[in-house]
Write a structure and sequence with these properties.
Layout lengths: L5 E4 L5 E4 L7 E8 L9 E9 L9 E7 L6 E11 L5 E11 L13
Antiparallel strand pairs: 1-2, 2-3, 3-4, 4-5, 5-6, 6-7
Pfam families: Avidin
GO cellular component, one term: extracellular region
Family: Belongs to the avidin/streptavidin family.
Length: 113
């Protein structure tokens, strides 16, 4: 069984800490990114999410958002699934969408990565 709560590190050396997942699947935590839009130093930002309760022997899916607090006018939504590999290591796979604020409707096309 994969446990979503705990400390996670990604390929860019960013850290994510998820507090205990509540019985209803809700969780919160913080994300310390090493990659910033402004190229600045790493900063911790709040995250909130929910985990879908896995079925018998299943791997849980989840989604969360990060509000890039105090250093960027952007928000990122992540969706993924938690697995355990053959060596017993827990692994999160995710896809993300980052939305930056833009100054006009005409610039909307370039606001989402």
């Amino acid at each position: 069984q994969c446990q979503l709560s705990g400390l996670w590190r990604n390929e860019q050396d960013s850290l994510m800490e998820i507090s205990a997942v509540r019985d209803d699947g809700d969780f919160q935590g913080k994300y310390l990114t090493r990659v910033t839009l402004a190229g600045g130093c790493a900063r911790a930002s709040p995250l909130k999410g929910a985990q879908q309760q896995p079925g018998e022997g299943g791997w849980p899916t989840f989604a969360f958002t990060v509000r890039w607090d105090k250093f960027s006018n952007a928000t990122t939504a992540f969706a993924g699934q938690c697995f355990v590999d053959v060596a017993g290591k827990e692994i999160l796979t995710t896809m993300w969408l980052l939305r930056e604020a833009v100054g006009s409707l005409e610039e909307d096309w370039k606001a989402t990565r």
